[in-house]
């Protein structure tokens, strides 16, 4: 007895779509495991955050991790395109300090992991003078050139070095304005974000539901108070920046000699 024609087997000629979906699901699971979906109490929600929310549970907003993953991938793609330009990591609140330092060290990038000094971008010429002063004093100390001063004078110089390191130590390698900023908690670092906006410097921002997403060109809507979540996103951005450096090495901007 025949019950109809057997169904044809569906063969995937190109499994790239399947692979992409699998990777996205894996990334979403990683975000979930890091607690990236937890936002803040609904009472603290900024209107611009509504687009990135899945819902509310026990009066706490929950991020839509599919949207978070899409935004994170867009941020990674942008950072990978920064070939030849620097990325400044910024995060001064206690949940972010160590993650920002570690990510910047991994990526070989400048960073601010303390209080943002007003004018760091908009008054960079004068800020650079302070950084040059720091570099000069450290070089002189390393070469033993401070021995010509009295003990009290050396003590004062050491104190100056410590103060300059605390304020500008992460910026020593930044000879010019950065090509972009990566900011942890754009509300906490609103001065840095506004300076970047003023100068037309793109901002990649890890932002929770209390942040103004309209100020950030590449927002990553996720938990910015969880150390695991912050560390995860910082690491992803650092990896993307390393890729931009590798692409710069592979494709140097040099004209080919004519035969």
Automatic annotation (TrEMBL):
Transmembrane segments: none annotated. PROSITE patterns: RIBOSOMAL_S2_2. GO terms for molecular function: structural constituent of ribosome. The keyword Repeat does not apply. One of its GO terms (biological process) is translation. GO terms for cellular component: cytosolic small ribosomal subunit. PANTHER family: 30S RIBOSOMAL PROTEIN S2 PROKARYOTIC AND ORGANELLAR (PTHR12534), SMALL RIBOSOMAL SUBUNIT PROTEIN US2M (PTHR12534:SF0). Belongs to the universal ribosomal protein uS2 family. This is Small ribosomal subunit protein uS2. It comes from Candidatus Kaiserbacteria bacterium GW2011_GWA2_58_9. The lineage of its organism: Bacteria, Candidatus Kaiseribacteriota. The gene is rpsB.
């Amino acid at each position: 007895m025949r019950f109809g024609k057997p169904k044809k087997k569906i063969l995937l000629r190109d499994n790239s779509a399947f692979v992409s979906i699998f990777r996205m699901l894996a990334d979403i699971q990683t975000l979930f495991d890091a607690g990236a979906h937890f936002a803040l109490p609904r009472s603290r929600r900024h209107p611009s955050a509504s687009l990135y929310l899945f819902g509310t549970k026990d009066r706490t907003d929950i991020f839509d991790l599919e949207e978070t993953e899409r935004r994170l991938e867009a941020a990674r793609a942008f950072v990978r395109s920064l070939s030849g330009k620097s990325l400044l990591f910024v995060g001064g609140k206690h949940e972010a300090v160590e993650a920002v330092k570690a990510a910047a060290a991994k990526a070989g990038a400048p960073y601010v992991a303390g209080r943002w000094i007003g004018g760091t971008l908009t008054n960079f010429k004068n800020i650079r003078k302070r950084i040059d002063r720091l570099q000069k004093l450290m070089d002189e100390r390393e070469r033993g050139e401070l021995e010509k001063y009295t003990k009290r004078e050396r003590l004062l110089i050491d104190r100056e070095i410590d103060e300059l390191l605390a304020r500008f130590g992460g910026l020593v390698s930044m000879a010019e304005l950065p090509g972009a900023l990566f900011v942890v908690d754009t509300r906490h670092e609103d001065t840095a974000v506004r300076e970047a906006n003023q100068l037309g410097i793109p901002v990649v921002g890890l932002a929770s539901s209390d942040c103004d997403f309209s100020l950030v060109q590449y927002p990553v809507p996720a938990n910015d108070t969880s150390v695991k979540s912050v560390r995860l996103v910082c690491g992803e951005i650092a990896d993307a920046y390393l890729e931009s450096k590798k692409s710069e090495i592979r494709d140097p901007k040099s004209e080919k000699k004519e035969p």
